Amino acid sequence: MPFQIILNLIIAVMWMFLSETYTFVAFVSGYLIGILLLLFLQRFIPDTFYLKRVFKMIQLVLLFTKELLLSNIEIIKMVYRKDQNFKPGIFALPTDLKSNWEITMLTSLISLTPGTLSLSVSEDNRIIYIHAMNIDDNDEAIKSIKETFERAIMEVTR
Amino acid sequence: MIETWIEIIVDIFIILLLLFGTFFIFSSTIGVLRFPDVYTRLHASTKAATLGIAGIMIGAFLFLFAEHGIVSGKLLLGIMFVLLTAPVSAHMIGRAAHHTGIKPWSSNDKQQDAYADAIKEQKNK
């Protein structure tokens, strides 16, 4: 992936020199041409096309925005409720993610989604402890986190 | 004629965004006051405040762009940094609270605390 980005940048700079206009617009058009070239010559370049990963990243951001909106509506419902009969508690979420970067992403995403707040990560990076607003549906929460966020992060990083 | 209509619509949009942001920040403050313990209060302060700040920042960005033609990158960067820092600070405060021995509040006295159990298990080993 870094190799492809460097290649793309080199093509963009070369385009600037070829057309002899040293502006940002020329750079952007050169970059677009580089993307096209990379797309056509995909077979001869190692690794998959890097924009696929960028696309996945955009999908992750969109998913995150959606969950943020939903979580806010949920929290506001709880704030303005007359009786406070929710049952908070802490549950453990086993995770398959390995590197520090991935786990940081996952804990941040968990903190900003409905009814969950990551509290701590175990020493061996295998378990994340999460505080939930309603402990009763923690199985459902584990499942949804595993199926949406963990998978989305894996698609970006691997 | 059409231009004035577009201006009015943009203005209404900006006002709605600003109101949306202030409403969420207001609700998060009420949540901090009403919820029973540290952890639930953290829920209110991190989530709602983040979205509220994002709403106000986007509103201000649109206003500057529509009225003065300024593209203010600082506001967009501000949203990004709030999104990055709010969950981390909540994580740290929550962990610190747990380490000082604050137990999560429960409406019936049956607390579920997997983290405390794990710490106990580790000590016993």
From TrEMBL, chain A:
InterPro entries listed in its UniProt record: Cation_antiport_E (IPR002758)
Claim: Transmembrane is one of the keywords in the record: yes
Ranges in coiled-coil conformation: none
CC terms in the record's Gene Ontology section: plasma membrane
Protein name according to UniProt: Multisubunit sodium/proton antiporter MrpE subunit
Family as reported in the entry's similarity comment: Belongs to the CPA3 antiporters (TC 2.A.63) subunit E family.
Keyword Cell membrane part of the UniProt annotation: yes
Keywords: Antiport, Cell membrane, Membrane, Transmembrane, Transmembrane helix, Transport
Subcellular locations according to the entry: Cell membrane
Membrane topology term: Multi-pass membrane protein
Record field: transmembrane: 21-45
TrEMBL record, chain B:
Membrane topology of the entry: Multi-pass membrane protein
Family matches, as Pfam families: PhaG_MnhG_YufB (PF03334)
Compartmental location: Membrane
Superkingdom of the organism of origin: Bacteria
Record-level GO cellular component terms: membrane
Predominant cellular place of this UniProt entry's protein: membrane
GO molecular function terms noted in the UniProt entry: sodium:proton antiporter activity
InterPro entries: PhaG_MnhG_YufB
Transmembrane annotation, as ranges: 12-36, 48-66, 72-93
Swiss-Prot/TrEMBL keywords: Antiport, Membrane, Transmembrane, Transmembrane helix, Transport
NCBIfam families: CPA3_mnhG_phaG (TIGR01300), PRK12674.1-2 (NF009314)
Family: Belongs to the CPA3 antiporters (TC 2.A.63) subunit G family.
Protein name: Multisubunit sodium/proton antiporter MrpG subunit
